[in-house]
Amino acid sequence: MFTRDRGQLRRFYFDAWRKKQEREPLEPMERLVAEVIEQHPEYHKLFENPDAVIDRDYLPEMGESNPFLHMGMHIGLYEQIASNRPRGIGDIHRKLVVKTGDPHAAEHQMMECLAEALWQAQRENRMPDEAAYLAALKRLIKT
Q1: Domain spans of the chain?
Q2: pTM score, whole prediction
Q3: What is the pLDDT of residues 86-116, one digit of tens each?
Q4: 42 phi-psi bin (left φ>0, alpha ψ -120 to 50, beta other)
């Protein structure tokens, strides 16, 4: 799962989904990936023909969003919540779920903050600013 090879990472997604569909045993990370895919029926068609999308570029300037990036953001957020890093993110998540009444919608709001933190870090060629990220997340529960 942890690789810089886009094709290899996508194959992991395809394999996890196939195993779930065929009711094969799943490793913990495969289970997580399959659950994220399951939560996104709009992407299920992608998984019917892996060869068509394994090497596809998704270009924002063409109005495309990258489904693998989107699902990866969910997975990254789950890992942050599970480890409570940055400290307090688990509590923010719980409060936002109560506020929205929908865990998936809460995650999408949180992912906007995560995407901004990652974009800023990449733009400035530095590590993400956890304090700024956490402050942005806290604003979600105050509004």
Answers
A1: 1-59, 84-143
A2: 0.89
A3: 999 999 999 999 999 999 999 999 999 999 9
A4: alpha
